[in-house]
Predict the 3D structure of the following.
Amino acid sequence: MTTRFSLAIAVFVSTLWAMLIVGDAAPRAGWTAAQLDELRSLSLLALDPLPPDPTNRVADDPAAAELGRRLFFDARLSANGRVSCGTCHQPDRGFQDGLPLAVGVGTTTRRAMPLAGMARSPFLFWDGRKDSLWAQALGPLESAVEHGGTRTDYARVIVAHYRADYEAVFGPLPDLSVVEALWEAVTGVFVNIGKAIAAWERRLGFGASRFDRYVAAVTSGGAGSDLLSDDEVAGLRLFIGRAHCTQCHNGPLLSNGEFHNTGVAARPGLPEDLGRLAGATAVARDEFNCRSRWSDARERCAELDFMVTGDHALRRAFKVPSLRNVAERAPYMHAGQLTSLSAVIAHYDRAPAAPAGHSELHPLRLTPAERRQLEAFLRTLSGPILIDGHDATTVTP
Amino acid sequence: MTTMTMTTRAVLLVLLVTVVPALQGCSHAMMMRGTGARRPAASEFGLGPRTSAEGRVVVTLEPAQPLRPRQMQTVRVVVRDADGGTIDDARIAIDGGMPEHGHGLPTRPRMTRALCAGLYEIEGVRFNMGGWWEFRLAITSDRGVDTVTFNLAL
């Protein structure tokens, strides 16, 4: 028998004795020092300052962020004049749309991802096919089913409506009437649209959830009993323990930033989705990646340089999303396949085989009560979305 | 604090004498659901120096910064022979993973530079969660090919 299992039995026995003696089985007390360290590592207390983005020279320029905010909500940046970034990333819905598949000028094949904290992610989109927030922002603009327009259309919008603000950040607009310089010039303006939008988006972050306040209380010697219920604490114990959630959902954003195949069923009617296997190849070749001529730090691209590509484990592997505010954004998974948190937990509990590639899950064999406790815990991860310390969900164009 | 009835206490006592042996009986099945990997003793963890499998080299890790989960990191490696002399012509291949979870490294680290005095630089190292990681180096030099495995606790 392993030492760990003997220890588990010893804990179980002492718990039963404690119940017999004092008649109170409240599980909230008694985190070990190692567990308290782990809880702290999952809370916003452990969040590092926002790292710089050397690939975007205007990443932390307030004027660029203000221009980016206006561009984010401007539906003129679309083929039909009705789609902006804010169409799918709605502030009052936590910067997502609540739909299984995002809808722009057409319907996409993936679920819209939320935006808060994304500036900390080395790879963007469910398959990580972009390696910066600015390169990500350019993808939907040229997607036929999202914004549906062309970079030329968008450069013209800048010339017609944003000249002064654009030039204050990026310098003089090129002369778009010189035909031989057109493609380079247009692409340069297009890239700067992405960099301005990224400068705004990167300021979106998370405020403290009930879970964070609980961790602050228990790591400073308090009981935290007014912050989480017994069931929520029991769910937290499962989360860091037997349910193995922290294998992927770790760190203060509750994501390891990686890609995993968790056996999520394909959504009927959609083309085959290879996930990260295709995404890794795409980002290595991306016109706007860290090593591209449009990057402001071509020499520092460690994420691309040491990226895993071509590995079978990447097949149908999708990005591990942050679990912050997870209860506020059903449906779940990369194509909105699961409609509720309880369905998600049931999926992980059952661990079905993957439709392609190999699922990394193993059945958890949780009881119905444990599944409810886990869900109760996940609901404590909701908190405000902030921009520069203020509520971001009420921002308007 | 709630007050328990005698009946409740009796039920708990019965649980204590029946469930614990049952759980002990389950231990084999529970282990089978994991990878079966056993975490080494605490003395087997650390940055070295560690002697390679066939004793050809002695290797020490020198991370540029303390190793932390989810960070892209650079690790310098000191390679010496058994007598403490530096080995300057080595090539190092890197592998690793989490034996308890059955997965490898999330990146493909590479030896990017050979510095002076048996010192080499490995870039692109990332560990995507806390816990027990193996960091395995295959070292090719004029002493032959040998491997060394570091157990790291993040």
